[in-house]
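User: Please check token order:
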Amino acid sequence: MTKFVAFIGQKGGVGKSTLARALAASALGAGYAVKTVDLDPQQATITVWAQARDRYRVSPSIRVEAFVSVKDAFAAASGEELVIIDTPGSLSNEIAEVAGRATLLVQPTSPTVDDLYPGVLGFKALENVGVPRDKFAFALCRTLADDEAADARSYLKGLGFAVLAGDVPEHLDYRKAMNQGRALTEASQPSLSARAETMIADLLGRIGMEQAARQGKLRRSGTG
């Protein structure tokens, strides 16, 4: 049965496309059949990144399809084990439709109140239209210090929301990696790749893709 993971949020620049790339690279690397959907074809962030990945000959190649219609995106699923949906920075009726059909909704956020508060409101709005809270997970991105990440995690968990393991700090090496078509989990510095893998492995475990989650753990331990 196909798993659908959607990266959503009311704001741009918080990490939706960034985490979608990392999830696609990890799941493909573990041997799963994966498709990535770009629901923002005008900006085309993940589409352009996938083209850069091919240009720099990074393996495995990431398959991306762009759609304007949510219905068309779901209808185009054709036996993939995982479909990753990268959405625009808004919470529209179409995003509510994505939420209703997705296996897991991941909302990246920085630890600032400017991002946390809209993020909480966004998940609560989806809950108000019938999307169950057990589909929700926050992902902490663009962190600058461990205590900052810990405070944000405590705040979100105190409100009853799941938060993916680990956090993704601001770092130039991540930016260089993505400019060359690589994912967070493929950064030049192993410690940075490991931080991203912690989060992605938790995400994969939550949707029942244990093989990919286990492979990430092996890489972090240096035994795989």
User: Anything to note?
Assistant: The longest helix spans residues 190-206.
